[in-house]
């Protein structure tokens, strides 16, 4: 309560600064990890508004305050804004159509630089978010991968809300879902390859957050199309594309529950954002066990529950998900 009071006092005094935005980010992260809703949604929204006020969301926006006069300060602003973006998308995962606090990245948006270079204070090039391929002279860090995953998560959340609106062309919606599936699969493969290429437990642990968000986005997408009686499709003629997408979704949920999530659960990482991913994977495993009684899913479920139990020892949000799994 003291932290919230101090932040509110600073805002009331008209303070607009990087440090205040970072304080709100830490406060929102704490509230999310402690499962304090809707406080975390409101707190990250305040941080996003501060960032927008300082034009972090768009370098070409009108500058109401002095522009960062050094590379390191601008990079710190960029990393803070991306953290706001990641938390905003993650917290919005289970909201019912509520708007995002942080807008979609601009076409020329840059990703954070490699984490090791940032810690060492090296001035290095930044990779763009939107690109056909990345440069061979730079290496994406784990935070940049997390930003990519959060960006895709936001796309899936928006798509899921769009799917429920009958005013949109269903063929376009389904084709967009197929494109999202391909993009998510490519991102997941890239994260896994990067984790394997470094061949160290610390590398795998640092990429666990990105992988968890990516898997959560996949689960959200597959959950919207895996059920043949999903809302919005029973009152109209079905398309063959929807049947194909349902098959893709069921196979995706199977891979998520039997392979992707168990691998992630075996990584010794304390990232609290994994809790939502593990809970979703547990639900998928339970569904396949009820329907098909698959032995592989039973083993996977044990591994995932162990990972969730490990997180529950530290994070209350994981404890709540663990109790929900026990009820199922």
From TrEMBL:
**Leader peptide range in chain numbering:** none
Alphabetical list of Pfam families matching this protein: Fungal_trans
> Do you know which CDD domains this protein is assigned to?
fungal_TF_MHR
Q: Any idea where this protein resides?
A: Nucleus
The domain of life is: Eukaryota
Q: Which GO terms describe its molecular function?
A: DNA binding; DNA-binding transcription factor activity, RNA polymerase II-specific; zinc ion binding
Name the keywords, alphabetized. Answer: Metal-binding, Nucleus, Transcription, Transcription regulation
Record keywords: Magnesium included? no
Write down what this protein is called: Xylanolytic transcriptional activator regulatory domain-containing protein
An example Gene Ontology CC term for this record: nucleus
Xylanolytic transcriptional activator regulatory domain location is: 40-118
Q: Name one GO biological process term.
A: DNA-templated transcription
